[in-house]
Amino acid sequence: MIIDSSSSAHPSIGQAVGAAIAGYALAWAGYNGALKATGTPQPPEVLDRMQQAAGALPFFLFLVAILIMASYPLTEARFREIVSGSQANRARRLAQQGT
């Protein structure tokens, strides 16, 4: 029960964060949703900022991901150590289940 709820929480949190980022980007751009009801288009500068956000935001998040990955010291030896530990844990778990 707890595992089910915690595994379904992650996508919900991700969706909430993604929606918040999109909302903040639209607010930054100056988007006015009320204009749609009047048939008035968004001003050109708003559309320009929306396009900037659509390009700049993923690029910024990509740079953050690159910095995180670059700071993680994963060498071939460390990779083999992680795989070996994972295999040992799996073997220990299977041995415990068999008894």
How is this structure best summarized?
The chain is mostly helical. The protein has helices at residues 2-29, 34-38, 44-71, 76-98. It has one domain.
Report what the structure shows:
The radius of gyration is 23 Å and the shape is elongated. Helix 1 crosses helix 3. 85% of the residues lie in helices and 0% in strands. It contains four helices and no strands. It has helices at 2-29, 34-38, 44-71, 76-98. The relative contact order is 0.06. It starts with a helix and ends with a helix.
Q: Characterize the main sheet.
A: none
State the helicity in percent bands.
over 70%
C-alpha termini separation = 25 Å
Structural class: mainly alpha
How are helices and strands ordered from N to C? HHHH
> What is the global morphology?
elongated
Furnish the topology, listing elements before pairings.
Elements: H1 2-29, H2 34-38, H3 44-71, H4 76-98
